[in-house]
Structures
1.
Amino acid sequence: MERGNQTGIPEFLLLGLSDWAEQRQLLFLLFLWMYLLGVLGSLLIVLAIGSDPHLHTPMYFFLTNLSLADVCLLSTTVPKMLVNIQTHSKSITYAGCLAQMYFFILFVSLDNFLLTGMAYDRYVAICHPLNYTTIMSPWLCVLMVAGSWSVSILLALIHTLLVVPLSFCADDEIHHFFCELNQVLKLSCTDTLINDTAVLILAVVLCVVPFAGLLFSYSRIVSTILRIPSARGRGKAFSTCGSHLSVVCLFYGTGFGVYFSPTSTHSSQKGSKASVMYTVVTPMLNPFLYSLRNKDMKWALKKVFSRKLLFT
């Protein structure tokens, strides 16, 4: 397949997760349920936070944006895979592949930065509680979220534009269920040195920098909690960041497991199956981790459902 000034087949083939026809219907039902659970759960989080004035705080402002980013991340990859399974097709257009690549990088980047912002919020709340309102001002929260969106959009745009000039060979098969950047670059006939350099920069920006921020925040949080004399006080302090820590471990644990594990081979179906964990399972579980381990969220969700029952 060729691009640029040359002509060729204007599509890629997404090989998906399985070549077995017997498994396709099972995969369709499984991913449909995961998609619906993830989207509905995240939207319920947004609705609960928006309807409860007590949750109009910096932490839940970040959580609202994280939930919306998770909805968009799920919608970037899963619907196309479901359509391909039902239509017994593996094709995705060149433009569709670029669009999917752009939005995937955008919302994964956004998740990274928002999780780091939430960790900083917890650090200020636990380590500097008396100055929390002053430090985490509405202006700073809006600035942090706007900065996360801006950097994520810029990174996604740069990587997508760097792919446009590439020419592609006759091999148009992507060993994945979506247009993952590394898989697309492997199909190129032209030199991808600039692209590979940009991927390394992306890894630093998305992994090293946010992860360092997370480690700093939680190292200070843990040291502060351990200095609290009473066990009850330590438990209460830890509960304020328990949900966020669970999401961070799930997100980074699955992401690092896919891209930094020596046994993960991105050219095989094993790599694509492993990537399901951070592209689909993690966004699906986020709303449940925040609602099941957070008393304020439980109370807000109960109020939402009770209002619905009153109007029915």
Note: The domain at 11-311 is CATH 1.20.1070.10 (Rhopdopsin 7-helix transmembrane proteins).
2.
Amino acid sequence: MRNVAVLLTFTRQDLIDRYSGSVLGGAWSLLMPLVNILIFTLVFSEIMGARLSMAGMQQSEYNYSLYLVSAMLAWNCFSATVTRTTTIFQDKAGIIAKVSISLRTLPLYLLLSESTIYVISMVFFLGFIVLIDFPLSWSLLALPVVFVIQQVIAYGLGLIFATFSVFLRDIRELVDIVFKVWFWLTPIVYVADIIPDHWAGVLAYNPVTPFVDAYRDMVLLHQLPSLQFLVVTTTVAGVTLALALFITQRLQQDIRDFI
């Protein structure tokens, strides 16, 4: 119970500290992603909107906005969780020395913080969907399941990177670069069928692509994720988490000594 109270306190403080002193406060957590989404929409809506119509989606001025936001909100949460967790042990070195909390548990507050922002963003997104009279379906009830699987993977990856970044500081910069490239290798902004054939294989081996497709299937096509997708991704999440917990546990004392 003590660890739970500490994590909730850290989560609350993280949400408060992000924009403390600013006039709009926590509203920036929503405004910054919205600005990025608006830019992509203005730049790509005409081209990608036509592609979506060719792919069988009903012609609508909001097609591309729905296509983009349904994937980008999840990507923003995933990438922020991993990249922020990567530096958690250096960022909280002082707290680690003072508070009796497991190093495997500490990054959970970042997971909770980023997930909270995602949930708030999704509420606004669903409100927008209702506002434009786009149909909702029961398939959305599966969205939390997919999101939890995604975040377990994000937590596992972040914890692995955080452990090794204590001993090799270049990892934090490497992770940042990888995620910038990874974003453009994932069909978030663009439609997958515009990719040349010799690059199509990259998308096939991109582990985030099935998640992006699953979110869009639930929101836009009103389809549930396939059983195969759920089994494979749950297995990957379990293996990633188990590996992360094992590595951090084995190196926990070394981490405390090194920082």
Note: Residues 2-258 form one domain.
3.
Amino acid sequence: MSDRISGQALSRRLTPQALLAGSGVLWFAIAAAGQWLFTYYILGAYIPRTASGAYERWNETGLIDGYVQGDWLGNLGFISHVLLAAFVSLAGVLQLLPVIRRRLPAFHRWTGRAYMSVAVFLAVGGIILIWVRGTRMNDWAALGTTIDGLLILITAAFTLRFAIARQIDKHRRWAMRLFLVVNGVWFVRVAYMAWAIASGGAGMSRSLSGPADILIPYAAFLIPLTLLELYQRARDSRSSAFKLVLAGVITAGAGVTALGVFGAWMMMWSPNIAF
């Protein structure tokens, strides 16, 4: 009898809505860990090299045109862009934590203002680095990153608009969209590594000109945005089947994200930390 009662209690807890919410929490937990590993990598790779004046060692991290001899303005723009990326990686996760919103509303508001301001600065700066400084490997991939930058400007505007209007539900939905596109560069790295591990590097080349190399910068923001929209629709839907399907898809996405974070940490981030 007790087993039967326990089973009924468990079935009441494991509703389609609860499974959907759980899949979202799982993905966010993995993404948050990956974001903070990325933050640690940025700080560990660039602060020691910058503090010691060894600016040319920025290029040891494998980036394109990190340091260019004699281009002091471009170098300043580059290092500002990189270090501010650490801030948005850290602050973006904090902005989406419900406990922060509930218990520290003032911190949430002021961090949110700083987050959106820095995100806009990074979007504009990134586009300038790509098309003015030429920090790119090929134009097709650079166009994908540029579109992501423009989406940052759009989503930031709507996030701010609904915050000012006190339309909190719409504000949160746009804030989640903003979080995804702001982390487009992070998604690119994670997607590259997940694809490289899963496929053995199919469609990839050292010059980043293979079919997968070109498609990933677009998939890195289109797929997360699509899944977010489907997740929000499933959460609002009355269809249990829709909720269960999306819970499975999001859980699979969490697995892919975990694989990509593991690969990025092992092969791209940790080897370049200079602490």
Note: Residues 19-272 form one domain.
4.
Amino acid sequence: MQQRILREATHLFVTQGYHRISMREIAEAVGGSKAGLYYHFKDKEDLLLAILTAYLDTIERVLLEIQQAGGSTRSQVRSLMLAIFAQPPEQRALIRLASQEMPQLSQEARARFGLVYYTKFIAQVEAILRNGIASGELHALDIHVTTWLLLGMMYPFFYPAHEHELGTPAAAIDLMIDVFFDGAARRD
């Protein structure tokens, strides 16, 4: 039942927004009662954090597998992008949802999520880039800023509405990889 709640709530939050959906509407979508939801989750905020944490658990596993597989920094970043873009648009939209809804949540919830987000996602991307610096593949850069620049390139594609703009994921990924690693300047 908990997995069904997470699945239905994810769909509702992504398509309609966290604040536009009530626990009653989630219960109706699941075919259960509000009491049933509260048995599994303290409140709607707790439910959102459970959804986001489950997603970050998946991303962390992917990132750890990529790092364990080794290869160049470029190939690891490409593998990360391929893994993220292989997900259904609704799953990718969870990153966008988190950034949009975090300011509305309690300070405690924001702090809890921030730690999980950093540990499971940002720190793992930073580790890939840090290894690239250590191996000489990348210049010595501010790792934090560089990580956010990389993720910023991907961010527009976390909106399901932009799915048609992606074209083939591999082509968009190759372009992002080329711009990130080689720049966009013309070289004659």
Note: The two ends are 60 Å apart (CA to CA).
